[in-house]
Records
---
Amino acid sequence: MKTNVKSNMIYSPQNYLEVLTGKCYIIHGREPVLKQVCRILKENNLSAKSYPLKETVRAVRVRYPIVLVDCSEFTEDMRLVPQYRWFRVPDNFEECG
């Protein structure tokens, strides 16, 4: 079955942004991860549209090529708040390695 999911890997925000922009970014804890990723995508004229993991069926139905990105964060008391999102990649996307 053909799918628009283009990777079996879960990308870190930094790796995802580097694959799309060719630039290296540092994601810091002063601002939500998802907000930083979306801002950087927009600054590079790329789509910032994403879908939460729980909306996988919807993300797959859109038919754009997508990859899963880990946008998890830590709270001030160091509790992990998991957040995985489906983000768009170019039609010609190919993984390295």
---
Amino acid sequence: PRFVRHFAMLLIPSPTETTLKVIFKSILRGFLSNFSRGISDLAELLVSASVEIYQRVSVDLLPTPAKSHYVFNLRDLSKCVQGMLQADPASMREPREMLRLFYHECLRVFHDRLINLE
């Protein structure tokens, strides 16, 4: 007790779903403003889907002793969005291409950690 009194305890709550959407939507909208109209209109849908996937994976795939790597955090959601920020406006012309990139990034971030089909 005497030693602990020299430290301050901080608790930073997890951001809400709305907060996550606002943060990542502003990032993705700004980036996609250089793309065609069809692609830039996808920003809100992509962010909503990303947040939904992140939340479901975090709740449904809890770590166990056999699956200790099933720890998902905000960094994983960020990686998913950052992967989409690597897209080149000159080579990506169709909304379908952005959706394929989103699918690819979600597979790399979330699916690659899974160790069985269950």
---
Amino acid sequence: MPPSLVVEVLTARPPPPPPLALPFFLWAGRQKGFRHCFPAFHALALLLSTAGLPAAADQLPDLMRAHGKPVSHPQLTLLVRLHTAARRPLRAFHALRRFRHEFDFKPEVHVCNRVLGALAAAGHVEDALKLFDEMSEAETQPMQ
């Protein structure tokens, strides 16, 4: 089975329900000689997030590590984009912090700016100031 088939199933319209999609994804990963591709992980995170399961989507880095894939900036960008688009700025903020501390990432400026904007727009000014201070300490210049 090619990895593109998993992506096609997860991105089908109408989307498969998460109680079917997640077991399918995990089953495919257990097949002999099969390895998930990055688009499959992204499709799963998108499916879970749009289904109203943001906590499950936040497990994307753990799932990738379990399947032997390295976690990188595109995964952080995806999670931040999903959470800010769904008006969940605190989840985006926590994802950003998790990637910084647990995975030792230096977030890209546009990702930080997106989280800053979402926090400020939602009225979480104290969290936005915390992020701004963290960015300054990490020598990431906000609002470039």
